[in-house]
Amino acid sequence: MAESDGAFDTLLNGRVRLHQPQAGYRAAVDPVLLAAFTAAGPGERVLDVGTGTGAAALCLAARVPGVAVVGLEKRAEAAEFARRNVALNGTALNGMGDRVSVLDGDLLAPPPELLPGTFDRVMMNPPYLRAGAASVPPDPWKAAANVEGEAGLADWVRFARAMLKPRGTLTMVHRADRVDEILAALHGARFGSLTLVPLWPRPAEEARRILLAAQKGGRSPARFTAGLVLHGPDGAYSAQAQRILRDMEPLIA
Questions:
Q1: CA dist., res. 51 & res. 214, Å (int)
Q2: How many Å apart are CA 253 and CA 243, to the nearest integer?
Q3: For the ranges 42-56, 130-144, 151-165, 213-227, which has the lowest average pLDDT?
Q4: Confidence of residue 92 (pLDDT cuts 50, 70, 90)
Q5: Between helices 179-188 and 153-163, what is the axis angle to 10°?
Q6: Does residue 112 belong to any structural domain of this protein?
Q7: pLDDT at residue 6 above 90?
Q8: 3-state SS string over 173-220?
Q9: What are the start-end ranges of the H helices in 118-195?
Q10: Best label site of 53, 141, 180, 251, fewest CB within 10 Å?
Q11: Is the pLDDT at 93 greater than 70, yes or no?
């Protein structure tokens, strides 16, 4: 894969370099926020389901020295970009190269290297749209990233449960208007201790995205936090969003 096959972007104020397709799907702020919300610690193993080009996996590795991240990606082209990005960021300086790996595979038929019950945390940025609920983009990569395929939302949640250790934590970013389906899927898979973080586009605007954390087998009551306002009235990122997206401040629930 030549550099002409894509373009380079930077995340976390240059701490992560990301080689992405020149046209079509490009990772935005959602995977960066997901990594900021995933409260992993050194020595933990984290599975990033649908890793794409590896944005969330690499941001988490940059934030947490000593964490090990495995990315699972169904599309071979995307997995190749992710592996390229692991190599691109795997210098002795940042130490990410030996802590991030990428596997080709489908969550409906996972590769044998993924052993159930072996991850402390699972994070995911599933397709936001239900199959049949929206027109499918002509670009196959955009289509896979935005519209559910054979695996629906409940399949993603069940897979996370299977991969997690007892009391392990799932973190997810999704559309706020699908929260009822998400809660039903989490309840069906016996997740509890739910935390929801609305992502407000601007003050006084409805949330369009939401971050969620849930514990496998958790029993504490669900709670909403104050959330995060992403932009000020002028359209620029808010001060808190800047600290998260540029300065690696964690998004604490």
A1: 19
A2: 15
A3: 130-144
A4: low
A5: 40
A6: yes
A7: no
A8: EEEHHHHHHHHHHHHHCCEEEEEEEEEECCCCCCCCEEEEEEEECCCC
A9: 140-146, 153-163, 179-188
A10: 180
A11: no
In a domain, 253, yes or no: no
Tell me whether residue 250 is in a domain: no
**Looking at residues 30-59, what average pLDDT do you find?**
97
- Domain ranges, residue 34: 3-245
User: How confident is the model over 21-39, as a mean pLDDT?
Assistant: 88
Q: How far apart are CA 20 and CA 7, in angstroms?
A: 5
3-state helix, strand, coil in the chain (%, to 5): 30, 30, 40
The enclosing domain of 214 has a CATH number of: 3.40.50.150
Confidence (pLDDT) at 62:
95
**7: pLDDT confidence band, cut at 50, 70 and 90?**
confident
How many whole angstroms separate alpha carbon 158 and alpha carbon 163? 9
Closest CA to 147 of 160, 135, 157: 135
- pTM of the model as a whole: 0.92
Please state, in angstroms and rounded to a whole number, the distance separating the CA atoms of residues 118 and 123: 14
Q: What pLDDT was estimated at residue 134?
A: 62
Is residue 131, in this structure, part of any structural domain at all? Answer: yes
What distance in Å separates the CA atoms of residue 16 and residue 162, rounded to the nearest whole number? 30
Q: What is the mean pLDDT of the chain?
A: 91
Interacting residues of 239 by C-beta distance below 8 A, sequence separation 6+: none
Q: How far is CA 187 from CA 69, 158, 182, 217, in A?
A: 26, 10, 9, 10
**What is the total count of domains within the chain?**
1
CA dist 109 and 97 (Å) reads: 27
Token duo for residue 104: 């080709």
Query: Looking at the DSSP assignment, which residues form a beta bridge with residue 76?
Result: none
